[in-house]
Amino acid sequence: MRKTKRSENGDVILLKHTLAERLRAEIVKGVLRPGEKIVEGVWGRSLGVSQGSIREAINILAKEGFVTKALGRSARVVSLNADDVKHIYQLRGAMEGLAARLAAERGCDTSKLEQALKTMRHSAEKDDVAVLLDANLAFHLELCRLSENPYLIDQSYRILPPFFAFVRIRAIVSGQSASLWSKDFPAYRRIIDFIKERDGDIVEQYIHKTMVGIAATAYDSWERKPAALKSDYERLHPVQRILKR
User: Fold this and answer.
1) Three-state secondary-structure class, residue 73
2) Of 145, 194, 200, 201, which has the fewest Cβ atoms less than 10 A away?
3) 59 and 126 belong to one structural domain
């Protein structure tokens, strides 16, 4: 752990970011499982810090999407079931498809999308799932930001960070290789190219059909073998063939 700092009354407290790192590690390792309560008093005693310090750390994790908090209730590790994932993909198809169309119509700068894809490729080569998924999230948030629609952007920050946090937990706990995401890189490349070419209608259709296509099997696919994933991807992505140019 990183070193501590002293408050004005002389008490020694761990930095909230250090505590957040510790709790995040416990979540990713599966010690704290999806849906499990994070009891401030229990973790405070375990780590030798105050409940207030744990609460601050939990607030950081809530912003990152790793935990959910309801007023007056204990925080819980983010948890989604198969239906949740399916519905989120369906919503993302509409939301991100619209964002890409708006970005394409205005001929937006795609440099941040390019950088996110570059990071994903590099992370796959190094087999770093955590960094790859962080870059993946950055790609989709930037895509929504390019819409310049404040309501769409607001919804993207409500939906995407918790979703990707859950994917990250499942993928790391199950020991998936980062290389499994390499199959998606041509799709990201095509999205960028459609935006640069100002093909708004095409990119909207492309994203919508792709998201809807994978919605039904995404939940299970995060823990599947590479061969099965490749088979599902080819079967569920006819839009790749339809729109290939």
Assistant:
1) coil
2) 201
3) no
- CB contact at 8 A, 74 and 44: no
Is residue 93 within 8 Å of residue 82, measured between CB atoms? no
Helices within 39-110 (DSSP H only): 40-47, 51-64, 82-106
Query: How many domains are contained in the chain?
Result: 2
Relative to beta strand 37-38, strand 75-77 is antiparallel
Residues 105, 208: one domain? yes
Using one digit for the tens of pLDDT, what is the confidence trace for 208-222?
999 988 887 777 776
Regarding whether 204 and 141 lie in a shared domain, the answer is yes
Contacts 24+ apart (CB under 8 A), 147-153: 147/98, 147/99, 147/100, 147/102, 147/103, 148/102, 148/106, 149/98, 149/99, 149/102, 152/95, 152/98, 152/99
| C-alpha to C-alpha distances, 169 to 74, 127, 134, nearest whole angstrom | 20, 16, 12
Mind listing the pLDDT tens digit for each residue in 67-120?
A: 998 777 789 999 998 899 999 999 999 999 999 999 999 999 999 999 999 999
For the entire predicted model, the pTM comes to 0.77
Q: What's the CA gap between 95 and 229, in Å, rounded?
A: 25
Tell me: do 162 and 139 sit in the same domain: yes
Q: Are residues 132 and 208 in the same domain?
A: yes
Question: Tell me, what amino acid is at 93?
Answer: G
Distances (CA, A) of 184 to 102, 127, 147, 152, 229: 22, 15, 22, 24, 11
Do 147 and 61 share a structural domain? no
